[in-house]
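Q: For a teaching handout, I want to show students what a protein-ligand complex looks like in token form. Below are the inputs, and the small molecule is cobalamin. Please produce the holo structure.
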Amino acid sequence: MTALATTTDPTDAYPGYLTCLADADEHGAVDVALGLLDAGVAPERVLLDLVAPAQSEVGERWARNEWSVAQEHAATHISERVVAAVAQHANTRPTGGRVVVACMDGEWHALPPRLVAEVLRLRGWQVTFLGASVPAAHLVSYLHRHDAQAVALACALPMRLPHAHRMIEACRRSDVPVVVGGRGFGADGRWAARLGAAWAPDAPSASELIADERALRRVPAAQLSHLADDEYASLVRRRGELIDSALTDLRDRMPAALSYTPAQLDSTISDLGHIVDSLAAALYVDDASLFTEFVQWLVEILTSRGVPADAVDLTLAHYATALRDFPRAARTLRLSRAGLPTAGPGAVH
Ligand code: B12
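A: Here is the structure, written as tokens, with cobalamin included.
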């Protein structure tokens, strides 16, 4: 068990809280959070300055292969318990309109919007939290039946942006103003602007934006005229074929891949799919940096797990050949390969 926090600064309580997550000490973590509340710290600060950065650190440890998926799941579960305990302790009664908070279809990162939902609640909004992966049609029919002042949509993965756009458009058609957020829209929200959606970097800004309905509705239209070249749609149509051929190519050129365990094979197929999906998302928003950043991230993840960057380059080279008649995709793949640690003459086998 961890001693109760006596500090009034969440930053001071942070190391102890992180130790609780590392030790899967659920009660200790709740005690740290409630200790801060008892010491007079605002619940919003506990959520945003303790729980949120700790979750980001959980992600970094998983990415560096220091923590297993099981440790990440255990820590995330504890964070969810802490959020619930803080919300119950605060027990705010709503004074404002209804805000529906949901994850985009296919998006399982429910904790970030849960934090947003609780902060909105603390600020007086009547919040309905729909959680992870809400299908667009179900969200729209929900909005029709409940009189929502706004809907807040979360996306943590840039590769889900084309789906996010369809969801944003579906909400718009029901005339409910939309605010989006989450790391999927880019650190500065630039891909939200490309999709014509109002973006908030964090929960307090989302609350302010929702209070100003005119600002929420006054968003420049989506800039997607580049989609007329059909590259995005063609890539989506060819997704299965590209993954299959990339796997065959990988097995031909990297003999180690022939003796992969079923679990390794599964995660390789999943990575090959993520590469295609991220490339498709980059074409959708017409920004190569979405894909180059993804490739850098993937190389870090794989190298920390003993897979060489060359394996990623093999696949990028394969996709580059398969998509040579697609100018935007070819350029994006070229840029991403140039940024690889193995880039340079002789780097591509
Ligand atoms: C927990 C977790 C999971 C859990 C989610 C459980 C849950 N209940 O949420 C599970 C296990 C499901 C998961 C799955 C995956 N995950 Co994950 N996950 C995380 C982790 C560790 C924590 C997420 C979190 O709570 N962050 C803390 C919040 C508070 O931070 P935040 O997202 O920046 O949110 C703030 C703002 O962005 C903003 N905000 C966020 N959402 C919204 C919404 C609105 C409307 C507004 C206004 C603002 C807003 O406010 C927040 C508070 O300030 C992150 C690491 C990280 N750094 O976030 C990875 C992370 C997001 N996951 C990642 C990945 C890759 C995946 C998987 C693809 C892994 C896999 N191979 O299967 C899958 C994808 C599943 C899917 N389709 O959605 C990567 C994404 C990398 C990338 N560049 O795309 C990350 C960054 C991990 C990493 N370091 O590499 N994950």
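A: Two things your students might notice: Strands lie at 98-103, 126-131, 148-154, 178-181, 198-199. Residues 92 and 122 are 6 Å apart (CA to CA).
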